[in-house]
């Protein structure tokens, strides 16, 4: 995994992005990520393609997901929600810093499994207009920019709309999250068949599941979920 990251962030590929490592704040000849931190990042290796749980052997779906598969068809993530990734994600969501999105978006693009079909379009999870105005940007849209550029997949910021303001999901139980998101999203008319919903973190999976159901009801045949990290989607 580290050798792949080293190729991704080679200074020969990204000479304009050299400077300071976002993790350790030390000078680096690689863009946004130094050699040491790239080697130490707790990225997932072989894991369940639906929930991200670590797996041994050649199987690609864990026993839990075989019995109770999630709404989506494929989960593309970098790691579990843990240090040191959590610090940069917090900066992206709450401290008005968008450079982590450039780093994580590029990693999501470059570490996308080559044997997985690419979706027709990337769909960032929308914010309500008031929350986006307060934050001045949508972190999922910022993540989508480098992904779209590297993989050549267009980003559609208009297909999904958050129709009403909701409480912040952090700290809510799964049941309260489901209630909180009731009738919160609208899917505009489209002709897509394979799409990827992009968020920063998949926590309980309620937001992703809600959007996946709406997209499948609207005509999508396959809906993937992409995110930087996931927390435990079920007891492991």
Describe this protein's structure.
By secondary structure, the chain is an alpha/beta fold. It is built from nine helices and eleven strands. The protein has helices at about 1-10, 35-40, 65, 85-95, 100-110, 130-135, 140-150, 175-180, 205-215; strands at about 20, 25-30, 75, 80, 120-125, 160, 185, 195-200, 200, 220-225, 230. The radius of gyration is 17 Å and the shape is globular. The chain starts with a helix and ends in a 6-residue tail after the last strand.
In short:
The chain has 236 residues and is an alpha/beta fold. The chain has helices at residues 2-8, 35-40, 63-67, 85-94, 99-110, 129-135, 139-151, 174-180, 206-217, and strands at residues 18-20, 27-31, 74-76, 79-80, 121-124, 160-162, 185-187, 194-198, 201-202, 222-226, 229-230. A hairpin with a 6-residue loop joins β1 (18-20) and β2.
Span of the ends, CA to CA? 23 Å
Strand content: 15-25%
pLDDT averaged over residues:
85
Specify Rg, calculated over alpha carbons: 17 Å
Number of strands: 11
Structural class of the helices, strands and pairings? alpha/beta
The gross shape turns out to be globular
Which tags fit this structure?
single chain; 236 residues; alpha/beta; four-stranded parallel sheet; three-stranded parallel sheet; 9 helices; 33% helix; globular
Tell me the layout of helices and strands.
Blueprint: H1 2-8, E1 18-20, E2 27-31, H2 35-40, H3 63-67, E3 74-76, E4 79-80, H4 85-94, H5 99-110, E5 121-124, H6 129-135, H7 139-151, E6 160-162, H8 174-180, E7 185-187, E8 194-198, E9 201-202, H9 206-217, E10 222-226, E11 229-230
Parallel strand pairs: 3-10, 4-11, 5-8, 8-10, 9-11
Antiparallel strand pairs: 1-2, 6-7
Helix pairs in contact: 5-7
């Amino acid at each position: 995994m580290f050798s792949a990251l080293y190729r991704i962030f080679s200074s020969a590929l990204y000479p304009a992005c050299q400077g300071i490592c976002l993790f350790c704040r030390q000078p680096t000849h690689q863009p946004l990520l130094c050699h040491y931190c790239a080697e130490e990042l707790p990225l997932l290796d072989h894991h369940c393609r639906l929930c991200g749980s670590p797996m041994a052997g050649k199987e690609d779906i864990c026993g839990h997901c075989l019995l109770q598969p999630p709404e989506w068809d494929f989960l593309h993530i970098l790691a579990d929600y843990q240090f040191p990734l959590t610090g940069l994600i917090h900066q992206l969501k709450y401290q008005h810093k968008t450079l982590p999105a450039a780093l994580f978006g590029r990693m999501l693009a470059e570490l996308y499994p080559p044997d997985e079909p690419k979706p027709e379009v990337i769909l960032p999870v929308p914010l309500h207009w008031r929350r986006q105005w307060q934050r001045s940007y949508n972190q999922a849209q910022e993540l989508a920019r480098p992904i779209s550029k590297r993989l050549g997949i267009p980003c559609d910021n208009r297909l999904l709309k958050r129709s009403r303001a909701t409480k912040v999901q952090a700290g809510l139980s799964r049941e309260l999250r489901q209630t909180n998101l009731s009738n919160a999203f609208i899917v505009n008319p489209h002709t897509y068949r394979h799409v990827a919903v992009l968020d920063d973190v998949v926590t309980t999976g309620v937001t992703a599941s809600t959007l996946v159901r709406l997209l499948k009801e609207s005509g999508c045949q396959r809906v993937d979920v992409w995110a930087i990290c996931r927390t435990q989607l079920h007891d492991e």
